[in-house]
Amino acid sequence: xxxxxxxxxxxxxxxxxxxxxxxxxxxxxxxxxxxxxxxxxxxxxxxxxxxxxxxxxxxxxxxxxxxxxxxxxxxxxxxxxxxxxxxxxxxxxxxxxxxxxxxxxxxxxxxxxxxxxxxxxxxxxxxxxxxxxxxxxxxxxxxxxxxxxxxxxx
Length: 154
Description:
Layout: E1 4-9, H1 13-29, E2 32-39, H2 58-82, E3 87-93, H3 97-107, E4 112-116, H4 130-138, E5 143-146
Parallel strand pairs: 1-2, 1-4, 2-3, 4-5
């Protein structure tokens, strides 16, 4: 049914648990996985005339977030390896995580987006998380929203 599943992560404990469920789902479907971390774009400081020397350059910022993305998606890659599921990971940059998730899913020909009902913004929300809600409203491919029944311990 599904051949390629995009699993998103923001690095939070909730997201890691959701990703584990996504990998199990991919294994059951016989699908491959694309693990995606969306990082915010570099922001130049607008409050000063001269960029402070301690402020990272755009290249340093991007390199640091690519490393962070690799760390955040590594648990998905490892889970896929344990379950013999083919997996590729990537980090993308955008100010709108939701729109980037939809765009990457379309560009990489994913059949399904698997994501949590809440991410880093957490359990305090009564409704779906804002990123999840935006993905649901913009995606033309199916989105499976996984909801954890209990909050994970960090």
